[in-house]
Specification:
- This protein is an alpha/beta fold and 171 residues long.
- The protein is built from 8 helices and 6 strands, in the order βαβαββαβαβαααα.
- Helix content is 35%, strand content 22%.
- The radius of gyration is 15 Å and the shape is globular.
Length: 171
């Protein structure tokens, strides 16, 4: 049985981004799948969303959210399988420094548009998982990237807004 949404319950949305047909690029979708398997009956104020390669579609899902967590593959100078945590302002800085997601319309682009056209969530956190080269079609994550799924989930639960949200009750 799901809990009722109370007027002050924050709406938390977790977006898993990536293309699961391209191996490690699908890490965000794999994290969402694992969460769905862990929690078959989430409270109404928490949504798990498979964003795929998202693009501008993400704008619709930002609306009405109080807190957003985004999980996506990134390419920077880090070790494959390392997990990076960014807030919105951090993302803008790191994109200028050469770190980026591997999608055509980047998450930073979408978030920049959102800042100009709609009300933004109170917080946006991106967990970027460092991946290697993605050239071949594959449904399989590399061992190093697969090993970080539980790490990312633990880091998400450590976010301060989860301590006030009902997911902490079922953790």
């Amino acid at each position: 049985m799901q809990k009722e949404i109370l007027w002050n319950d924050p709406m938390i949305r977790i977006f898993g981004c990536g293309n699961p047909l391209m191996g490690d690029d699908g890490i965000g979708v794999h994290v969402i799948d694992k969460l769905k398997n862990m929690y078959s009956d989430l409270p109404n104020d928490i949504e798990l969303i498979d964003m795929g390669v998202c693009g501008l579609d993400m704008l619709n899902f930002l609306e009405g959210s109080d807190h957003v967590i985004i999980v996506d593959a990134i390419k920077s100078n880090g070790d494959i399988g390392s997990v990076h945590r960014f807030e919105l302002n951090d993302l803008k800085e790191y994109v200028r420094d050469g770190m980026f997601t591997i999608h055509d319309v980047g998450i930073v682009d979408v978030l920049s548009i959102a800042e100009h056209v709609q009300k933004m969530p109170d917080s946006i956190v991106l967990f970027g998982i460092e991946i290697g080269q993605v050239d071949d079609i594959s449904f399989v994550l590399s061992d190093k990237v697969r090993a970080c799924i539980d790490v990312v989930i633990d880091l998400m639960f450590d976010e301060p807004f989860f301590k006030r949200a009902s997911l902490s009750d079922i953790r």
